[in-house]
Design brief:
- The chain is an alpha+beta fold.
- It folds into two domains: 115 residues, MutM-like, N-terminal (N-terminal domain of MutM-like DNA repair proteins); 133 residues, Helicase, Ruva Protein, domain 3.
- Helices cover 24% and strands 22% of the residues.
- The chain is built from six helices and eleven strands.
- The protein has a five-stranded mixed beta sheet with strand order 2-9-5-4-3, covered by helices on one side.
- A hairpin with a 3-residue loop joins β7 and β8.
- α1 runs parallel beside α6 and α5 crosses α6.
- It is elongated, with a radius of gyration of 20 Å.
- The model has no long low-confidence stretch (mean pLDDT 94).
- The site of zinc ion has 7 residues, from loops.
């Protein structure tokens, strides 16, 4: 699933591909129900004839701005985007197309169709707890979150608190910070929260560095999970740090790997 680094990588890809300045000519879709908040004529009235001025990422949303308006793209579970010439054959999972007046198209591929295009909805405040932003720190979460008995893993996976970390980045960060995923967040010291914040940023940053190397080299397929993980996602595999057998459990139904030696409860 695209998480924060994948969405950030997509934003960088679009900008480097030169989408800024392109002018909307028309659209096509095979999944009209995925256009949320759009009336029959909304796109035509609000966007056709207008240029893309800039693209930003807010948590896992890409925000496409024209001079006067904006809409959101969410990649869902399997979505990916490419800016291609009109005569480039379309991928079989192409669901939505934005045609531009420069013979190029923004193509939205999505095999499982959980992606969406959203208009007119305000972004939720929780999206501002963006782990890729410089100011992000777990120590700044509301006391109502920090005081809870809920496990740190389930807090990190809760999109309404921290958007876009996902299962793999969460497990890796907890492993590197030597924190057991079952630890209630209220039991973590400030020092542990700072360390975990640091490891979250490192894991996301390592992933972005990988994407920066491969982006634009072969754009025929989406890039997922480029991160060089240290955590072994295999039960009983020897821990990268101490050779103890890796443990497997489920937290909120998500497969969770950890080392009891390095991450004691
Ligand atoms: Zn270990």
């Amino acid at each position: 699933m695209p998480e924060l680094p994948e969405v950030e990588n997509t934003k960088r890809y679009l900008i480097e591909s030169g989408i800024v300045g392109s002018r909307f000519l028309s659209t096509w879709t095979d999944s009209p129900t995925k256009w949320i908040g759009f009336g029959k004529e909304t796109f035509k009235e609000a966007f056709l004839g207008n240029q893309v001025i800039y693209i930003e990422r807010v948590a896992k949303y890409l925000v496409v701005h024209t001079a006067t308006d904006h809409f959101l793209l969410h990649l869902g579970m399997t979505g990916w985007l490419r800016l291609q010439n009109t005569d480039t054959p379309a991928h079989k999972f192409t669901r939505h197309v934005f045609h531009f007046d420069d013979s190029r198209e923004l193509r939205f591929m999505d095999s499982r169709k959980f992606g969406k295009i959203v208009y007119g909805e305000p972004l939720k405040k929780s999206l501002l707890n963006d782990p890729l932003s410089e100011n992000f720190s777990l120590t700044d979460l509301d006391d109502s979150v920090l005081g809870r008995k809920r496990s740190i893993k389930s807090i990190l996976m809760d999109q309404s608190i921290i958007p876009g970390l996902g299962n793999l980045y969460t497990d890796e960060s907890l492993f590197q910070a030597k924190i057991n995923p079952f630890t209630p967040i209220s039991d973590l010291t400030k020092k542990q929260l700072i360390s975990l914040t640091h490891q979250i940023k490192l894991a996301l940053g390592r992933s972005l560095d990988e994407y920066d190397v491969v982006r634009g080299v072969d754009d025929s397929e989406p890039y997922f999970s480029m991160t060089p993980w240290d955590i072994k996602r295999k039960e009983n595999a020897p821990c990268f740090n101490c050779d103890s057998p890796m443990q497997f459990s489920r937290i909120n139904a998500r497969g969770t790997y950890f080392c009891l030696q390095c991450q004691p409860i």
